[in-house]
Specification:
heterodimer, A: alpha/beta, 6-stranded mixed β-sheet, 21 helices, 20 strands, B: mainly alpha, 11 helices
C-alpha cells in the first residue's frame, strides 16, 4: 500500500540565532515518509513542528543554521540552487499554511491566485490554467466552483479558504503535501471534512504530512505519527501503537491529556437547592445594531436558561452560534434587545451603571484568550486585586486573600510580582481564574477557558476547573465548543446553534441519547482515541 | 556541515534597537543648554538687559565675547538668559498640549459614537488652518505675555495629541483586558486611568521631544514677527529679528549667534525625538 520514500530527513538540526542567543529549534530529527502514506506530526507550541515543515520547503527564518539533510524525492533540499528550489516548492513539496485566509492575497480572486501558480510553475497558458483551476476546485470539494473562482478570500468562509489553500498546494502536483495545523479555527464538523480531504491526497506517488497540536483530531487519518518535544522527535510509530502503547513519557502525557467524550463526569454530589435560581435568562434576544441604527445581525433568538447554586451548566456550539454573545450578555456587557437577565432575581437591565458595578462581586468571568485578558502594564497581584476594590478590604486582609487564591489555583505567592509577559499561557489562565474567584462570586462564567492552550496545559487547567466545580459552592457556566471537555465537567448541557437553543438536558442523557439532529451531528464529529484505535484494529492496522 | 541559508533571505541584518546614540547626543546638547540657562548669571559678567553705554554694535572681543547689539547689550549674556524663556515656553506648551490633547483623545476614543465623531470633526477644523497663521491670530488676540504664548502654542498643538491618543485608545479598548476590567467592577474613570492611559501614553511621550523643538521654532517665529516676546526681554527669535537690520550693515554677530543657539537646541530635541522613535520601533 505504501511506495518509495518521498521524504527522507536525516539528523536535521536547526539553530536560530536570536537576540537572546541561539535557540535549537530542531535537534537531530530523522524520519521518512513514503508515497501513499499519511504522516502525522504532533507536539505543543514551540515544539518545532512548523520549523520542520519550513525546513522541508526551505523557508527558514534569516538567521537559521542547518546541519543534516532533507531529501525530497531523493534530492537534497539544502543543496538546491535558486531555480531548483523554485521548482521544488511547487512540484516537490507544497505547504498549506496555518491560517489560510491570511495566507491568500486579499487583493486577487482565488481563481487568479491558482491560475498564477499554474501559469508560473506548470507553464500552462491562460485557458488551460483556468480549466485546471476549475478541476482543482472540484477536486477539493468547493461548492459552486465556477462562481467561487471569481471570489476574493474575504468572501469565503474559513473552511472554504482552507480548501482553496489545499487546491493551491496541489496545483503543481507535489510529491509531498504538508498541512500545517489545517484545522485551526475550524469547528468539529468542518475539521473532520478537511482532514479527510487532506488524507485523500495521499496517492501512489504522493505522501502527506499533517501537523497538529491536536492528537485526537488527526489520529483518525494518520498511518504513522511522530511526536516532537522541544525540537526532538521523541517517539515515532504506527498510529495504533502510539496511541495504545506509548513509550516516551511525553507521548504518554499527550495521550492522557486528550479529553475523552466517553469519560463520564467525575464530580459527585448534587447542586445545592436553596430557593430561587442564581441566574435566570428569560427569552433573551440580542441584535447587534450596525452603524447609524440600521437593522443589524441577530446573534441570539429567544434564549432562556437558569442555573442554581452548586450547578455547572455547559453551553456548547460551533463558532458563531452565539456562545460568546450569551456569556457577555449574562455579564451585563451587552444589553439584551428583548427579554431579561436576572442574578439573584435582580434584573440587570433595571440597574444603573453604578449598581450593576456593585453586583459584579456576585458574578465574574474567565476569558478565552488568557494573555490578552491581563493588562500588560500591571503585576499579577494588581490584576488579582482589581475586583477586590469593590469591597474595600484592609491591606493585610487583601494580601492574605491574594496569596490564598494564588495558592488555590496552583501558582502560589511567588507569582505576585510577575507581569503578564513573564507568564505562560497556562499560568496566565490561572491568574485569570484567580482574578475571577478572589472576590468569592456566586456565579462564574468560563468562556472557552482552555481553547487557547496546549493539550497538556489544557488538561491541567481542566483539572483545576473540575476541582473548583466539585466544591458545589458556586454556579458555573462553562462555555465551550469541545464536547468531550463539557461532558467531563458539566451537570447539564445546553446546545446552541445559530443563536437558538436546540437542545438542553442532563449531561449523560444528552450525550447518550441526543434528541436533536444537530446535536447528533455534533457528537458524531468528535474524534476520540478509543474509536480511533478500534478503526485501526478493524482495518488491520 | 553547517549551512547558513542565504537563498531564501537576504543577509541577516543586525537586529539591534537603534537610537541610543541619538538620544545620548541629544541629551548632552540639551544638558549643556540647560546648564547655560540655569547658570546664566554666573557665566556672564553682564545682565541680559544691561546696557554698556560705550559699546554699541561692538564686534566679538575680550570685553563682550559675542559682541553687543544695537542697544549696547551683551549678546552672550542675552543668549544664555533667552534659553530660560525658550526652553520654558517649549516644555510648558508641549506639556499643556499633551495634557489637553491627551485628555480629549482618551475620553472621546473611549466614549466612541457621536461624541467622538463630533469632537474629531471640530479638531479637523482647527487642524485645517495653517498652524502658524492660527498661532499669529491667537497671539494677536490674547496679547503677547509669556502665558498667552504658552497657551497659544500649546492649544494649537493639542489636536495632534488628541488624534494620536484617540487612535491608541481605539485599538486598546478592543483588548480583552478592558472587558475584564469592566467585569472586575471598575468604573469608567478607573478603566480610563488605570487600564487605558498607562498603555496608551508611550507614543505621546515619544513625540513630545520632537514637538518641543517645533515649539521653540514657533515661539522664535512669533517673536521674529513682533507678536512674541518683545524687546528688551531676551529671546532668540526676537534677538534674530532685531539683529536682522544690523546684519545688512555687516554686523553679522547680532543675528548669527542667537540663530546658532536656536539651531543647536532644536537639534538636541530632534535627536532625542528621533532616537526615541527608533527605540520604540516606530522608525528604523
Amino acid at each position: 500500500m505504501t511506495g518509495m520514500d518521498v521524504l527522507a530527513i536525516s539528523d536535521l538540526t536547526v539553530d536560530i540565532d536570536g537576540p537572546n542567543g541561539t535557540v535549537r529549534a530542531l535537534d537531530q530529527v530523522s524520519l521518512s515518509v513514503a508515497a501513499g502514506e499519511v504522516f502525522g506530526l504532533v507536539g505543543e507550541s514551540g515544539g518545532g513542528k512548523s520549523m520542520l515543515a519550513r525546513s522541508i520547503v526551505r523557508q527558514l527564518p534569516g538567521r537559521a543554521r542547518v546541519s543534516g539533510s532533507v531529501r525530497v524525492n531523493g534530492r537534497d533540499v539544502f543543496a538546491m540552487d535558486a531555480e531548483a528550489l523554485r521548482q521544488h516548492r511547487g512540484a516537490g513539496a507544497a505547504l498549506c499554511f496555518q491560517t489560510p485566509r491570511s495566507s491568500l492575497s486579499p487583493a486577487r480572486t482565488v481563481g487568479h491566485q491558482i491560475v498564477d501558480r499554474l501559469h508560473a510553475h506548470a507553464g500552462m497558458d491562460q485557458a488551460e490554467a483556468w480549466d485546471a483551476a476549475l478541476a482543482m476546485f472540484k477536486q477539493v470539494g468547493i461548492r459552486e466552483p465556477e462562481r467561487r473562482l471569481g471570489a476574493f478570500p474575504h468572501e469565503m468562509s474559513g473552511g472554504q479558504c482552507q480548501r482553496v489553500m489545499i487546491a493551491l498546494a496541489l496545483a503543481c502536483g507535489p510529491r509531498l503535501l504538508l498541512a500545517d495545523e489545517p484545522s485551526t479555527g475550524l469547528d468539529v464538523t468542518l475539521t473532520r471534512d478537511i482532514l479527510a480531504l487532506i488524507a485523500a491526497q495521499a496517492g501512489k506517488d504522493r505522501g502527506v504530512i499533517v501537523i497538529s497540536h491536536d492528537l485526537a483530531a488527526i489520529a483518525a487519518i494518520c498511518d504513522r505519527i511522530g511526536v516532537l518535544e522541544t525540537g526532538r522527535l521523541v517517539e515515532i510509530g504506527p498510529t495504533d501503537q502510539l496511541l495504545t502503547r506509548p513509550t516516551h513519557p511525553y507521548t504518554k502525557r499527550l495521550v492522557a491529556a486528550v479529553p475523552d467524550i466517553n469519560r463520564a463526569r467525575t464530580a459527585t454530589g448534587t447542586p445545592v437547592d436553596d430557593g430561587g435560581p442564581l441566574l435566570a435568562v428569560e427569552n433573551a434576544d440580542v441584535v447587534y445594531r450596525s452603524r447609524f441604527g440600521r437593522q443589524g445581525h441577530q446573534a441570539l433568538f429567544d434564549v432562556s436558561l437558569s442555573l442554581r447554586k452548586g450547578e455547572t451548566l455547559g453551553i456548547v456550539g460551533e463558532s458563531g452560534c452565539g456562545k460568546s454573545t450569551l456569556s457577555r450578555t449574562i455579564m451585563g456587557l451587552i444589553q439584551p434587545t428583548r427579554g431579561r437577565v436576572m442574578i439573584d432575581g435582580i434584573d440587570l437591565a433595571g440597574l444603573g451603571r453604578s449598581r450593576l458595578r456593585h453586583l459584579r462581586n456576585r458574578m465574574q468571568m474567565v476569558f478565552q484568550d488568557p494573555i490578552d485578558a491581563l493588562n500588560p502594564r500591571r503585576s499579577v497581584d494588581q490584576i488579582v486585586a482589581d475586583p477586590l476594590r469593590l469591597i474595600r478590604l484592609d491591606r493585610a486582609e487583601q494580601d492574605r486573600r491574594i496569596d490564598a487564591i494564588l495558592t488555590d489555583v496552583g501558582l502560589g505567592p511567588d507569582y505576585r510580582k510577575r507581569r503578564p509577559h513573564e507568564l505562560s499561557g497556562g499560568q496566565a489562565q490561572r491568574v485569570g481564574i484567580a482574578r475571577a474567584l478572589v472576590i468569592d462570586p456566586a456565579l462564574v462564567v468560563l468562556d472557552e477557558p482552555t481553547s487557547a492552550l496546549d493539550v497538556t496545559i489544557q488538561a491541567q487547567i481542566l483539572e483545576l476547573i473540575r476541582r473548583l466545580t466539585a466544591r458545589r459552592d458556586r454556579g458555573y457556566l462553562f462555555v465551550s465548543h469541545d464536547l468531550a471537555i463539557v461532558r467531563s465537567i458539566c451537570d447539564r448541557v445546553m446546545v446552541l446553534s445559530e443563536g437558538r437553543v436546540v437542545e438542553e438536558g442532563p449531561t449523560d442523557r444528552l450525550f447518550e441519547a441526543p434528541q436533536d439532529p444537530y446535536t447528533r451531528r455534533l457528537l458524531a464529529a468528535v474524534p476520540s482515541l478509543p474509536t480511533v484505535s478500534e478503526r485501526h484494529a478493524g482495518n488491520g492496522g | 556541515m553547517a549551512v547558513v541559508d542565504d537563498l531564501t533571505h537576504p543577509p541577516a541584518k543586525r537586529i539591534r534597537r537603534g537610537g541610543d546614540g541619538l538620544i545620548a547626543a541629544g541629551s548632552l546638547i540639551l544638558l549643556i543648554v540647560l546648564v547655560g540657562a540655569v547658570a546664566a548669571p554666573w557665566l556672564s559678567q553682564w545682565g541680559p538687559t544691561e546696557i554698556d553705554p560705550i559699546a554699541f554694535l561692538e564686534p566679538p572681543g575680550p570685553g563682550h565675547w559675542l559682541g553687543t547689539d544695537g542697544n549696547g547689550m551683551d549678546i552672550w549674556s542675552r543668549i544664555l538668559f533667552a534659553a530660560r524663556i525658550d526652553l520654558g515656553v517649549a516644555v510648558a506648551s508641549v506639556a499643556l498640549a499633551v495634557l489637553v490633547g491627551g485628555t480629549i483623545g482618551l475620553a472621546t476614543g473611549y466614549a466612541g459614537g457621536w461624541v467622538e465623531e463630533t469632537t474629531m470633526r471640530l479638531l479637523d477644523i482647527v487642524q485645517a488652518f495653517p498652524v502658524f497663521i492660527l498661532a499669529l491670530t491667537v497671539a494677536a488676540l490674547l496679547g503677547n505675555s509669556l502665558h498667552t504664548l504658552i497657551l497659544a502654542i500649546g492649544l494649537i498643538n493639542a489636536p495632534a495629541y488628541a488624534r494620536l491618543m484617540r487612535a491608541e485608545v481605539r485599538s486598546l479598548k478592543n483588548h480583552i483586558y478592558i472587558e475584564a476590567a469592566e467585569c472586575a467592577g471598575n468604573s469608567r474613570l478607573s478603566i480610563l486611568f488605570r487600564h487605558l492611559l498607562p498603555n496608551a501614553l508611550t507614543p505621546l511621550l515619544v513625540i513630545a521631544p520632537l514637538n518641543c523643538g517645533w515649539a521653540i521654532l514657533m515661539l522664535a517665529g512669533l517673536s521674529f514677527l513682533g507678536l512674541g516676546v518683545s524687546v528688551p526681554t531676551a529671546e532668540w527669535g526676537a534677538m534674530i529679528s532685531t539683529g536682522a537690520a544690523d546684519v545688512v550693515g555687516g554686523r553679522w554677530w547680532t543675528s548669527v549667534f542667537p540663530g546658532l543657539a536656536l539651531f543647536i537646541t532644536v537639534l538636541g530635541f530632534n535627536l532625542i525625538g528621533e532616537g526615541l522613535l527608533q527605540r520604540t520601533g516606530q522608525r528604523r
